[in-house]
Amino acid sequence: MAAAASLLALAPLAQAQVRAPGEPPRPETAEAGLWAMFEEAETQARRRSDRNNDPALNAYVSDLTCRIAADHCRDIRVYVMDRPVFNATAAANGYVEVWSGLMLRAETEDELAFVIGHEVAHFLEEHSYERLRQQKIVSNALTVFSLGVGAAGLYYQVDVSAVIDAAYLAGVSGVFAYSQTQESQADQLGLQIADKVGFDASAGPSIWLNLQAENKESSFRRVRNAEASGSAFRTHPLTETRVKTLSEQARELGMRGTTREDRLRYRAIIRPYLAEWIEDEHRNRDFGRLLHLLERLGRDGEDLGLINYHKAEVYRRRREEGDDVLALSAYRAAATHSDVPVVAFRELGDLEIRAGNKAAARDALNKYRELAPEADDLWIIEDQLARLERDGQ
């Protein structure tokens, strides 16, 4: 962990206030009102049903954040949230959220560290206070989140209120529109901080390049064309500009580049949560983006049972012409791997029946019955098998 002096050498960082739990905000200042809002939002986040309470995952993300924040670690509290959106947030009182959509898309710990470094930079630079002083805006209790490097409306053509409370998103999108200068500063300082404590600087441009490629495969034209407006809130730098600036900075810092070993180490950390996080992504109904993400998740030959199953689920749910054939192929591929979800055999059996492959259907349904003897739908499986038997197949 780097010393505080090392961080201070990077930029004129503001000193964070250290408060005991329950200590009231500073009285009679504009910052005190905002601080109270931060505290209220943190209380809400602590109680939310989409907060991930897994001790191991929270310990990992908190430790990573502390490594990046160095001596400011004691001022920061991290909450992992199960939300299928690429995002992280930080408030000036040290309250930080890291969302599952970000952790799923980060390929390496270095990439996750860069994004967290970006948020730590917002915190250290007190950008929320600066914005308050410049614009003299104090909104409702949900005006507590920096949009960080993510924006729900930018990359997802969905009614995001179905994913996250509408009031919450309204507070996020309406208030924390940091200036492009602040966002660029957080990018550059965040990368510098992450590099200073040992993370690879190539993570800065690489995570944006991957997200940019995913964006181009969206099923929705508005998302594919999002580069034109730069951000849902028109304050974040254009992705092309971010990539160029960060690439130049990474070269100056001496990047080494991502390796397969880096990706495999990070995958081992998030593997216990992979199935749930990918399932959450289906809620966005952006089939093109999800297929692109699944291809990237499977490129190292890991977790192919799970990944091929979810490819099949995309085709099954999308229901475009030819998707039955694609789904059948993906279910078959999934079934050859030990990590295939059991439910894949039920879906495979159903599609094999539709394709007229009754012997293959019987094999798949028998496999499902064997692996899920207590399944609630087992009576349906028994009925299907009985029909196949009557047909002499």
Described by strand count, sense and barrel closure, the largest sheet is: 3 strands, mixed
Helix content bin: 55-70%
Q: Going across the major beta sheet, what is the strand order? A: 1-3-2
In round numbers, the mean pLDDT is 81
Number of domains: 2
Structural class given helices, strands, pairing? mainly alpha
Number of distinct beta strands:
3
Please report the number of helical segments: 19
Low-confidence stretches: 1-27, 135-164, 169-175, 228-235
- First-residue to last-residue Cα separation: 65 Å
Which term fits the overall shape? elongated
Strand content: under 5%
Order of helices and strands: HHHEEEHHHHHHHHHHHHHHHH
Radius of gyration: 23 Å
Please provide a written account of the structure:
- With about 400 residues, the protein is mainly alpha-helical.
- The protein has 2 domains: about 5-260, no CATH class; about 270-390, Serine Threonine Protein Phosphatase 5, Tetratricopeptide repeat (Alpha Horseshoe).
- It is about 60% helix and about 5% strand.
- The protein has 19 helices and 3 strands.
- It has helices at about 5-10, 30-45, 55-70, 100-105, 110-125, 125-135, 150-155, 165-175, 180-195, 205-215, 220-225, 240-255, 260-280, 285-295, 305-320, 325-335, 345-355, 360-370, 380-390, and strands at about 75-80, 90, 95-100.
- It has a 3-stranded mixed sheet, with helices on both faces.
- The relative contact order is 0.09.
